[in-house]
Amino acid sequence: MKTIKLIDLRSDTVTLPTDEMLEAIKAAELGDDVFKEDSTVNKLEMMAAKKMGKEAALLMTSGTQANLVSLMSNTKRGNLVILEAESHIYWYEVGGLSAIAGLLPWPIRGNLGVLAPEDVEAAIRPKNIHFPETSLICVENTHNRYGGTIVTPDQIKAVSDIARTFGLKLYMDGARIFNAAVALKVEVKDFTKHVDNLMFCLSKGLSCPIGSIVVGTEEFVEKARKNRKILGGGMRQAGIIAAPGIIALEKMIDRLEEDHKNARVLAEGLAQINGISINLKNVQTNIVHLDVSELLVTSDQFVSKLREKGVLALPRDKKTLRMVTHRGVEKENIEKTLNIIDSIAKELHG
Ligand code: TLP
C-alpha cells in the first residue's frame, strides 16, 4: 500500500534531527551532569552563554521547564510577575507559574506581542501593605500567539529601561529568538543585552530532538540548577541531548531564513485565495495565521479537511489556524499546500 507523506505544518517542534546530529549523539563524550561531569553538556552550555553574551547557561529538558525554572529563579513565592496577555507562559504552560512557582501573573496586552513601556509602568505596584511585591517582567520573542511576530531590540530596551528604573528583573522567553535575529539580520546579542536572563529552544527550528537552554549570570544559573533539580530535571548522561545542540548552534541558525522565505510564499499565496483572510504584515518569521471564517467553517473543521488531504495544521482559535514552516517543509510542499487550500476553499464557496 502506498502511504501519503503528510505535510506537517503544525509546529517547528516536529523537526527531526539531521544525520550529523545522530552521528554526534553516538560519538558524544558522556559523564554525570548532576556532578557537572558531562563534557558535551559543559561545552554546549559554554557555547550558549558566549553566543548570548551572558556569563553562564544551563541545559533544560523543554521550553516549559526552562520558563518555569527561570521564573522560580528570578522571584520569591507570592511575587507579582508582569507578562503579555497572549504569552506562552500565561496560555500554554499549565499555569505552572502559579501552581508551582507560587506567582501572581499580571497580564497586560501588547501590540502584536510588544509591550508598551507606559502600560508596564502602570502595572508596577507601589510599595503598600496590601500589594504583592512586583519582581519580574517577561517578554516573548518571537511572539507565538501573534504569529511569530518580532519584538525589536529597541522595543525590548524600552521595557528594560522601565525595569531598571523600578529595580525589576527582565526575562525573555526567547524560544524562537534566533528566528527574530535572522529575520532582522542582527546579532542575537542585540536582543539579549537588554534582558537579565532568557531561555531559547533547541528543539524547534534548530531541529534538535530535545532541549532548551537558560542563560544569565553565574549566580542566576546556579539558582536555576537547584530549581531544575527540585523539579526532577537534573540529568545524568545528558551529552546525548547536548551533542545535537552543539551542531544546532554551529550550523542550523542561518538556515532559518529558508523557513521565513517559505512562510512568505505560503502567506502571499494564501492572500490570493478567495475566502481566506490573512494579515501579511504579521507574517514576520516562520508562523502563518489564516482566518477561514468567511468560508463558514470553524478552524477545527478546516483543519480536519486539510488532514484528509495530507496537510497538518493547528487551530489557533475558532476562526484562525496556524501553519509553521521548518526544515521538514520544502518549497514544493508549500505549493502543494496552497493548491489543496485553494481546492477546499472552492469546494466550500461553491
Ligand atoms: N510552543 C509550542 C506549543 O507549546 C504551542 C509550539 O508548537 O509553538 N515558549 C514559546 C514561545 C513556545 O512557542 C513554546 C512551545 C514554549 C515556550 C515551550 O516549549 P516546549 O514545547 O519545549 O515546552
Short descriptors:
single chain; Aspartate Aminotransferase, domain 1; 2 domains; 14 helices; 350 residues; three-stranded antiparallel β-sheet; Aspartate Aminotransferase, domain 2; 12 strands; binds ligand TLP; alpha/beta; seven-stranded mixed β-sheet
Quaternary state of the chains: single chain
Q: What's the end-to-end separation, in Å?
A: 33 Å
Backbone shape: globular
Secondary structure tally, helices: 14
Tell me the series of helices and strands, N- to C-terminal.
EHHEHEHHEHEHEHHEEHHHEHEEEH
- Strand order within the widest sheet? 2-8-7-6-5-3-4
Rg over CA atoms, rounded to whole Å, is: 21 Å
What does this structure look like?
This protein is of the alpha/beta class and 350 residues long. It has two domains: 7-14 and 255-349, Aspartate Aminotransferase, domain 1, CATH 3.90.1150.10; 19-251, Type I PLP-dependent aspartate aminotransferase-like (Major domain) (Aspartate Aminotransferase, domain 2), CATH 3.40.640.10. The protein is 42% helix and 15% strand. The protein contains 14 helices and twelve strands. The protein has helices at 19-27, 39-52, 63-74, 88-92, 96-99, 117-123, 153-166, 177-184, 189-192, 218-230, 239-251, 256-271, 299-308, 331-349, and strands spanning 7-8, 56-60, 80-84, 104-108, 134-140, 169-173, 197-201, 212-216, 287-291, 311-312, 314-315, 320-324. The strands form three sheets. The chain has a seven-stranded mixed beta sheet with strand order 2-8-7-6-5-3-4, with helices on both faces. A hairpin with a 4-residue loop joins strand 11 (314-315) and strand 12 (320-324). The chain binds ligand TLP.
